[in-house]
């Protein structure tokens, strides 16, 4: 299962490393490895979130996500997106943006590709931060049967009964971030609001199509499918979920793409490291979680992913005014995910022990009931045998009495015998 799932990632990573070696020798190869590891560490929680959504999509749309989605993630977000940001913010046409990128200028020098991309970080962070923050707030204010950090999650779920609380809290945090941290308050506010609106639009459309398909399926008019007890999305609902996954991936990748320029300013190395190594491995982790049904097995992994999303969202909103090292961001996410994994394993062992204990108690109860049944049956057999023996004794007594009567009858004179009738045996 593991090797089959990750075989493609290892092959593409090897190709990327060979390409990096021929492009820039050993330094380029080393940078690719560093960027790939950084991308996986920053996006492991992304893989968990992807798996949560992907398992509700049909097999066709899962394949679309793993093919078209990979192309968008590798080429679109890791290569084209930075060019678009630089082109728009600096007023450059596509050719000028590409030329500037290939100059590989020092990102600390004004006018270089890395510097211009860094200058656009506040609005990018505000957009991505608010999108991720809305995901976290909607989740944390939702009532769930299973809770990981119960002292925190339980009261927040009760407070979440207030309508639109997540939007209110999110906008308050955005205003605080823009007012006290951002240099350009207006652009950060606008970007953050756009991130919020994007989330609400995608989630709203997804909920509408899902409920619409459910209504139609009751009349056998809508294409719906199920795998076991899991209902999967098809058609338009699956398409909207695909768009949601791509926006989610983009929000996660913002920090990594911009942070990569602190390691290298070469866009080719960044595309190879973040894209062909990091992004592909994140997709493989997603597939492994879905096909291995790990989210059902590791019940707190989804909780950890949402808490990591919340941490990343807060970091992005803080980063509109202060630089936070990408390795710190990745480390926080990894620590939360690892903690959730350990808690999930403990929960699974505890559940297994309880199931074994329950099975043992049930087996003992069945054995006791069986023993009681056997004792009752034996008692009934003994009582029947005693009754039969008693019956035989009484029958023998009657026969003796009859023999005595017959003997007495035989002693009587013939005249008296003629007037009597003896009982038969």
Give me some keywords for this one.
two-stranded antiparallel sheet; 2 strands; 1% strand; 425 residues; mainly alpha; 14 helices; 81% helix
The count of β-strands is 2
Largest sheet: 2 strands, antiparallel
Shape: elongated
**Percent in strands:** under 5%
Helicity range of the residues? over 70%
What is the H-and-E element order? HHHHHHHHEEHHHHHH
Instruction: Give the spatial strand order of the biggest sheet.
Output: 1-2
Q: How large is the count of helical segments?
A: 14
Using only C-alpha atoms, the radius of gyration works out to: 38 Å
Structural class: mainly alpha
The residue-averaged pLDDT reads 82
Indicate the low-confidence ranges by residue numbers: 216-224
Could you give the distance between the termini? Answer: 85 Å
Describe the structure.
The longest helix has 86 residues, at 326-411. By secondary structure, the protein is mainly α. The chain is elongated. It has helices at residues 2-54, 59-90, 94-102, 113-119, 121-140, 150-159, 165-180, 185-218, 235-260, 267-291, 294-297, 301-318, 326-411, 414-418; strands at residues 225-227, 230-232.
